[in-house]
Amino acid sequence: MLRPTPLLPDSLRRPLVLGFFALLTLLGILLHRDYGLSWDEQLDRLNGIISVKYVALRLAPELARRQESFAAIPDMNQNEDVDHGVIFQMPLALLEKIVGPKTRATYTFCATWLRFSR
């Protein structure tokens, strides 16, 4: 079977790819304040918070129930969007609880910064 001839030699391909993604990451970090909300940002945030509550109830139920916002967070079985992945939203929800960004703008700023700095 014939293999296509590469456009670039191997010695240039890897540095160019790494350079491209490094530049993309750097631009994201420098420009993160200019990003806005996507249409499902609040839904993703809520999914992360519900998932953190679910895990907290499994690991430390008494501590979870003592949190002031516990009753306001829906249970996992009341969430219609349990099929969404929350691997990024859960750490962000924990960070929000610890650091406490109280405004939507602060939350968006933190979420966008984390996306580009990971």
List the helices and strands and how they pair.
Blueprint: H1 10-31, H2 41-59, H3 61-65, H4 89-99, H5 104-117
Helix pairs in contact: 1-5, 2-4
Features:
transmembrane, membrane, 5 helices, 118 residues, elongated, transmembrane helix, mainly alpha
- Give the low-confidence spans: none
Order of helices and strands: HHHHH
**Mean pLDDT level:** 81
- Indicate the structural class: mainly alpha
Percent strand equals under 5%
Q: Distance between the terminal alpha carbons, to the nearest Å?
A: 40 Å
Note the total helix count: 5
Calculate Rg over CA atoms: 20 Å
Number of strands: 0
Oligomer: single chain
Describe the largest sheet.
none
Helix content: 55-70%
Principal-axis shape equals elongated
Keywords: Membrane, Transmembrane, Transmembrane helix
Transmembrane segments: 12-31
Brief write-up:
This protein has 118 residues and is mostly helical.
Word description of this protein:
There is one protein chain. With 118 residues, the chain is mainly alpha-helical. The protein has a domain at 38-117. Helices cover 60% and strands 0% of the residues. The chain has helices spanning 10-31, 41-59, 61-65, 89-99, 104-117. It is elongated and about 60 Å long. Keywords: Membrane, Transmembrane, Transmembrane helix.
